[in-house]
Amino acid sequence: MSVTNTYSMRRPIVLITFILIGGIAIGSCTEIPLYFTIGIGFIAWMCCLTTFAVRKFNKYVFPCLGLFFIVTSIAYYDSRTALLPANHLEHVLSTHKSLHRIAGTIINPPILWDENILNKHVHLMKSERIPKRSGYKVPFTIRVEAIEAASGWKEISGIMKVNLYPSKEEIIEGGHNVSVLKKLKYGQRLVLFGYAFLPKSPSNPCEFDYKSYLQRQMPSVRGFMTITSTENIKVEERDCGNGIYRFIYAVYNRLNNAIYTHTFSNSAPLISSMLLGNRADLSGEVIDNFMKTGIIHFIAVSGFNVGIVVLTVAVPLRFLGFNQTLATMIILGTVIFYAFLTGLNPPVLRASIMATVFFGSFLVHRQWDITSGIFTAIFVILVRNPTDLFNIGFQLSVLATVGIVYGSVRIEEALFKRVLVVEKLQVKAERGRLFFLKKYLRKSFCISLAAWLATLPVTAYYFHLFTPFVAVINILVFPLFWIIIICGIVLLTLGTVCLPLASVSAWLASNTNLVLEFLVSNLVSLPCSYFYVCGPSPTEMAVYYLLAILLLYRKYVPISCVQIILFCLLSAHVLILPGLRKFSSRTLTITCLDVGHGCAIFIQFPNGKNILYDAGSWQNYDVGRYIIAPFLWSQHVKKIDLVILSHEHEDHVNGLSSLIERFQIKSVFSSRHSFASRKGQKILSSLKRDRICAASLSDGEVLKGFEPATIKIFNPLPFASAVTEINDNSCVLKIEYLGYSVLFCADIKEQGIGLLLSKASEIKSDIIQVPHHGSSIRDLEMFICVVQPKYAFINSNHDSVAVETLNILKKHGVRVLQTHLEGAITLSIDERGITSSAFLPKVLK
């Protein structure tokens, strides 16, 4: 029997788990009808029975079983994700916000503060120490039961996330409004009135897919509702739900309130995140600092927390002399309760299952096998929720665990081989006082390094971050984290019965937390502490992990160093070749990203250089960080040669600061009028601080360095003029390449168009950016007649595009592309002419 078959027989859970993973991956990548999958599964099962019954077909048993399990996995994934009832809310609502009255039951309640904490929060509000839009969001999840229609209430189904935004006055006044908030508990039935809608799919390349993220939750969230006042919430007397979950949510609330009551107000959010996984009140700056130092796992409840909980319970039980079987059962109960308390998130669930298998094997007198424990945990998690396979936390948790278990010992043997040999030869009397400290530091370093190497490609792929010193930072931060967790556990357990003990543990946890935040913020400011990277492709990640496996198991794999080197060279050739082809392209590519009402246009030139024309939006999130940067990384762009800011309005510039942090920007150009404004002066000071070249543009200038394409500036005028409107002073530029031309108009209106019409012979172009987001402008038709474009693109939202503008473009036979309908728009110019494409699956006419 082969080594593989022997291994599979010894650990069948490993093979079964890999088959399940393969089936889920195939199911996510294909759209095979469920009835077809079930039919194939039935045929495979019949083949299995045949191979069992007929002896001469016995050799086909394992292939048939493998096919059956894979097909079953695909069918299971499809049935859990694709099957929706006819009355599901996805068939009732749309992506456009509309007012609805909906009835449902709370299945994931908000975190409710007790009266003392709420009074403290109200006091901060009255003293204006809390920003205008901070702390007013109350999120919870409901199971939808009915929706009010014109004919009456109609039964529907599905899970909806509700965001309540009570005003500052409502919270300060209290009374009825606060009493309503207190009733938002698990199992409570509500009637809600607000804006209901479905989440949108991403409309730009590599933009975070929040819709899929919500659908992959457990339970799957398919809709949103926004409520602006507690007056729009009617609490019904009927209360339903599972008693166990009601108890768990009540305990969670009480523990969270205990943290906020006893710890410092500025330390409570981070301590609550570490202990209970509550990141609702964490500031974006704190999360970013932990992410940039590579220790984000410390503020997300993970398997490490489970290990600390086990030790915290096990040590006192052993000290008190508990029976070993009874102590094991208490530990198991504590682990299971903690897993439910933290919401059964994949990392905690994985560690809890491993702990359950470990202690359970002791109870049934079976030998513990760590490989079987890991794969049992993975199998149970994926059976519970197949889409957890695509959960970032699950992937990082599994990879880190595998790296620590199978890689840390080999790394220690490779880096400290001589030290380990000396230690084996030493007797206890020769080891000295610092022996255990050195051993702790060495093993901590190897464990941290193993976890970092195991998660490096995935971290770079999702977060585009490279943190070279994370192994050392983990060692520095770990003792502080340990103190906070231990003090927090003492606070939440013994602190409820002993107030002095609660005060001491809370004081120590709070001050340790302040030291931790201070240390992390200073580590982030150190040079080369982190780098933003494009991130590897899936192929590059596969090559990385395959090479890691070959290096770790060289003793068991019949492969020489020469073969490994040849494999690396071949992989490098395969990975680099597509980039060389792209570099040698003779295409000029223009991509207009969908940023809502705003502008972000990326232009890639045949000579390898690029220009970003504007970087802003009126959206309530950072488009530089969440839209433009992911797109640039997907194009393997590390350096932006030139940023042109058409004018100083926020919807054209507010994403620049994030791009300056993430990319090497050589130059930023704008009009003289823009740099003279107050906003422009702030931009100039930030550019000077980062040593980025800045210059002004004006009519008649020609930009060099982008040949064979030519770039000419047509607006604004180089001298002071009667043009006082900021929009009309926008930088207008024309790009010509291979006899085709593109005219970028930014936000010019009547006066700007009038100035361009005076140069009628020069502004004729094949492609035009419709001025001022497609709004109604006088003389627009005359402008279109002069330019004579074949293509026109509009970067805006639904509310800004005027019907009159669309009619003018249609009248003149112009092919119109709109970002709010098609998503990101790409226009390419090469020897074949102009081609257009859109990110969203919409047929362009």
From TrEMBL:
The chain crosses the membrane at residues 12-28, 60-77, 295-315, 322-341, 370-386, 392-409, 445-463, 469-502, 553-577. GO terms for cellular component: plasma membrane. The keyword Membrane applies. Residues 598-798 form the Metallo-beta-lactamase domain. It comes from the Bacteria. It is found in: Cell membrane. SUPFAM superfamilies: Metallo-hydrolase/oxidoreductase. Keywords: Cell membrane, Membrane, Transmembrane, Transmembrane helix. InterPro entries: ComA-like_MBL, ComEC_N, Competence_ComEC/Rec2, Competence_DNA_uptake, DUF4131, Metallo-B-lactamas, RibonucZ/Hydroxyglut_hydro. Pfam families: Competence (PF03772), DUF4131 (PF13567), Lactamase_B (PF00753). GO terms for biological process: establishment of competence for transformation. Its main location: membrane. It is a multi-pass membrane protein. This is DNA internalization-related competence protein.
